[in-house]
Amino acid sequence: MRVLLVGIGEFFHVGAFFKRSLEALGHECIFIDEQDYFRLNSWKEKIFYRLSGKRPLKYRQFNHAVLAACQSKPDIVMAIKGAWLSPHTLQEIKTRSNPILINYATDDPFNSSVSTPATVKSIPLYDIYVTTKQNTISDIIQAGGKNVTFIPFGYEPSLHFVEKPSTPAEQFKFSSDLSFIGAADQDRVHLFSNLLSKGLGGLSLYGGFWDRYPRFRLLYRGMVLGRDYRLATIGAKISLGLVRHANRDGHSMRTFEIPACGGFMLAERTEEHLAFFEEDKEAVFFSSEEELLDKISFYLPHDKSRDKIRAAGLNRLHSSGYTYTNRVREILDLVKNSFSI
Description:
alpha/beta; Rossmann fold; 2 domains; 6-stranded parallel β-sheet; 11 strands; globular
């Protein structure tokens, strides 16, 4: 099949994972990289973005590019989130070539901090709406969503794999008792502030905005991507898996990336996490700050227990097929089962 894929093409984004997966499955993939249009490089672009209510300067140019790409008559147009695809563009695509329109929603479309007004308005225009948040399904259906399906995140084997430090310096740099990789959302700031006040030590924080808070600056180790991401994960005795509550997450990308990189995952106890990994055998879960501290205190000195669980988590990951290629295959199976294509 010929698939027009719209997403972000940086190597650590879902758009890049889907592009690689479509090609691996033998499909022709025409890719439009949103980053070519929406990088806010100049002061002019940044000012316009703010004054226009977060509408990028190249919004129209991007939508015209998507329409132009549809001249190749794709069988499927698949958007990763589709934050900048206008409803008008989606309607025009249907009118001109009538492909199957699919959205793989990596965020809660009703969360205004990570979505645009067009995201919600466009919901009824997709033929298949795939969400990574089970908690959003009823609202998506109420907003007019068709063929609404839950398909989780996954991991990319070429990026997420076990890699150990090659030098003592690397081992020292990425070693920690407890690590978290992710942005400094307010509920996470609150959580870690409380944990530190209760005597938690050995914490390393990676990701955006932690350096804005004086209390975290000595714990902040910057951004980690690619090999550094793998080393930071395996270098931690315990890797925390926190969901985004404002995004109605039941799991996150880290849910699969941590075990794929050989990490010992201590994550929030959710129905989705419990479905993906067997508790206390393939991953460890918590439901409160007190339980989190108890689990940290128990597992930090027990190396053999951690190693056994991290090995079992990795085996479960591989045996259950939690790759993005399998996620894409599942989406394409939905198309074959629902449409004559």
